[in-house]
Fold each of these.
Amino acid sequence: MIIAAIQRSRRVIKDGDIFAIAQKIVSKSENRYRLLSEYNPSKEAKKIAKQIEKDARFVQAVLEESHKVVRYRKNVLIVENNIGFIQANAGIDRSNIDQSEERILLLPKDPDGSANKIRLILRKHFKVNIGVIITDTMGRPFRNGIVGFAIGASNINSIRDERGKKDLFGNELKVTQIGTADELAAAASLIMGQANQKTPVVLIRGHVTNKNEINNASALIRDEQEDLFR
């Protein structure tokens, strides 16, 4: 599916190109579908479902995809999912899939692994060295609107460490780390859209990857002990 989409674009793929790929088509290709009828809600799921006014089966699905519940209120359930990201509903999706059987779509089990697998397939097919980002969307504390972010990455600088470098006035940077993969994912997400745009793959060109700092998307997850919001 991904190779076909790239070939339809008629673009020449070059060394250093990065492909941002929507999580949804990765999850679909990995058959991460489930039916709500497959879930038997626990007491905890029923309790939370009543308070947030959601289907208890859906809440059970979220709990099974989560390490722990972070916050919940009416219509909102924020969790730390099994991958480690803090997301609403553990990233479980209902949009752009057939709802006639109450189907849901889960995130890939190993997004970094999925990104690397896709990268190796694309490298073999196009005979070039490329990077891959798997994108999803999420809300942010204190800000309205969802933004794109990276849940998986391969062969790029997911986070660039600027600590120890000097600014324009010679001041040493103490804490600056740039979430490169998230910034690229956010830009790609604008092109992908969230409704019926049908653009699941975006080509990013011109970004320079530092070969000494290649890391995957899990590097973007802040340790709970350093997180003021959990």
Amino acid sequence: MAFNFIDLFCGLGGFRLAFEKVGGKCVFSSDIDLHVQKTYEMNFGELPHGDITKIEAKEIPDHDILCAGFPCQPFSTAGKRLGFEDARGTLFFDVVRIIKEKKPKAFILENVKGLTNHDDGNTLKAILDIIDDLDYDCKFDVLNAKNYNVPQNRERWYCIGIRKDYGVDISDFSFPEHEELTTKLSDIIEKNIDTTDYIVSEACGRNIKTFVEKKNINVQPSTLAYDIRPSRCHFVTGDISNCLTAKMGTGGSNVAVVIAQNRKLTERECLRLMGFPDEYKIGKGYQAYKQIGNSVVVPVICRLAEELVSLCDFE
């Protein structure tokens, strides 16, 4: 089933991987981060466009589906004056103006779970009212990656929209049922790697040891330490990792540590915890960690893409 889609705030291209898998063709991508652009080009053979705020909506190719994991910025007027204008000054406005101009048949949005209760729910209400004003029906839910065979405790808000005049009932869209977790954290952590670039600092090692003893942690091969500070340290003692965040790109002790090996998770291991295939290419270091922490979880998007495309007839 052939259809076109665009990849806004494209990041590592998780949306693209998912929608290409179900027969889609990406006709436009955009991301302001130059490091992200290089990673995207390395994997998809094209350099994304830059700052979406500087791109006229009419210049974007026609498309059937708009994909956007838009950054969650403060909605300064959300909840005060509901409607289309409430989105001005945020990057969500750029999603809105593109939808208004290009009128895709459907869209899929992703954001943090906190969007659902930001400003006592007024932000979400503003978004839903704007979507309605654009003549789209929508359906949203919060899904956790760990329920879709990705061993990471990562909750995100997903919103599916379908144009009201398209003739498809949004109520027929079903968010995916939970799946058995057959891929475990212990399956992802490598046993024999060159740890040269990943060994933790002496200070970090001391902090981990202090809290391992203080909390009486039974360290196993897949036990992780994260949010490591002199005053605190959290642990993953089961087979599901903590939520990977963009803070991994700020340096310090923000990348989870495999305690038994005294080293940080590698970029490849983090990619696996986001459901990316092993052939996906990425650099090393904090810029790579930041990109991973900002990404969508590919298998979750795959489930949503499959359902959306099966519901809509793009012929």
Amino acid sequence: MRTGWKRGAKNRMDWRKAVTAVLAGIVVLGALYLFMPRPEKPVAVEEPVRAPAIDPFARVSVQGKAAIVYDLTTGDVLYAKNPDAQLPLASLTKLITVYSALEYLSPQYPIVVTEDALATEGDSGMILGERFSLQNAAKLALVASSNDISEAIALTVEGVRSLSTRQLSATLAQSMGLNQTYALNGTGLDESTTTAGGYGSARDIAKLAGALVEKAPEIAEATTHTAITAATLEGTMHTLSNTNHGIRHVPGALLSKTGFTDLAGGNLVVVYDTGINHPVAVVVLGSTIEGRFTDVERLTNATMLYFSSL
């Protein structure tokens, strides 16, 4: 009996030691866990709340019946007011005349001032029989809006292609996707009190002006100066003023063309570079003779704000 009791007591002591050892281990492990260095949790940083972008065109008001700001690089329309309305173009028709001529004739092709050309309204100092290269004639037609030179260009192309101005403009419009555009004459002068010399939309003119800048940059660049001096093939010099008296205030200007008739009212297109090779066309149709300049100025200012905020 004595021996069995001793053995039981010993077993109980061994069990207690084992339990004590386990508990001690748990305590040690708990202490290690509590004091063990832990990786810091990332601190959540709240994103700053950005104020909604202000649309620089939101408060722009134009007198014109139609207007557009057309990004020629992306094809985006930044501003539009009746952009596809078909309206009289007045002398913006000369863009059609010049572009059509460049499609069929070389820049050095001779343009002759004929009696029919001189019979058009307006006198820009041309002399019967004078000859200009198409390039110089185009500059005079666009910069000074010379009607006799524009008509001389149109008549030359008609003779070469055996097609009327309307047929030539229809071909051009179809090839370029200008759905609202056609011309009845080479100048844009009203045909009558009810019929204009050319029709188109603000969107069409924006595309056409941009295409002309690409096709004939030297001719387009001439329209950004306050005056143009061009020589005949015989060496006679002609100097004419730009009909856009505000073009010098447009930074990065690439092209400018004015237009005004009784039916059209005041029209104006300006193409300018908003950055590095990022041209934008601004077109206003159906404004007033002075309102067209104010309208385009407002739109170009808003366009500059738009790109500066990007």
Amino acid sequence: MYRLLYDHALVHTDPEAAHHAAVEAIALAGRTEPVRRALKGTVGHLGGPVRNPRLLAFPREIPGVLGLCAGMDKNAEAVLGMDALGFGFIEVGTVTAHPQPGNPRPRLWRHPDMRALRNQMGFNNDGAAVVARRLRELRRSSAGRAVVVGVNLGKTRTTPLDGAVEDYRASTHEVARWADYLVVNVSSPNTPGLRELQQVDALRPIVRAVRDEARRVSGREVPVFVKLAPDLEAGDISAVAAMVGEEDLAGVVAVNTTIAHDLGPGGLSGPPLHDRAREVVRLLRRDLGTRPVLIASGGITDAASGQALLDAGADLLQAYTAFVYEGPLWPGRVNRDLARASAVGSAGARGGG
């Protein structure tokens, strides 16, 4: 029913207005306890926690392998609602040290023939201090404390590249104590110069500042990840993987949107990205080795496409675009399907042993 509604009505609405309306509706559902409980017990019911020893890096158990990408709940307004719909973990943001409006509109486009989205949002968000207040309020409830929440950190547009270290440190100072993990986003194509920070010499001092500040303000080791673009060359991917090991980071999130298209400005997400995402995940797992966690996104439309990324070496998955096209029943359904596939695989392995 949702897909029919989307293809015949919603697709004709303004994409950004539809995005805001959806987030507001999901936020309202999350704030309304009877609705939230009903959703979580039905459409958001998951198949059991993820069993993976690498995930011991996280401070709490992860209930489902598929989580929500950054970019949907930019300002941490709908965490409980997203959890109720069946995402195993929620990544909010991208958050910057200072509030900013993002790029001029239009800046979000649908490509329904490919089930894809293209965006040039530019890290529009309320700023780290406001997001931190919302996360602090979230953690005051037992339901809010139970959700696995990551925070995706970006550079403020007006901050020059040589000020990036302190900009990321300032964001970390605000949000780290409320986050289960942090992601250093240096891979969005929509902030001028940002992708230059993927070079190891520029990236290393940033991740050190984030890790050290997170430890200082939270009193614990907060897992720190780096988010990479799909457009990096293999040598650059290997260099970042080596740095992750050298700096003892939690892992990598792969991949962000791609600029390898001729559709117009901005980064493309959705099924056109899947093959490249799988290749990047395969390269990263080869170079990372066995310990770091690898969170994969890019073109996941169902359990089979998610499983392809897991088979390539990912530990967890994230999605956004398919959620827009497939609707509120989609995340819980995919998580349940993946949990069943994992159970069958484990049973088969035991039987074969």
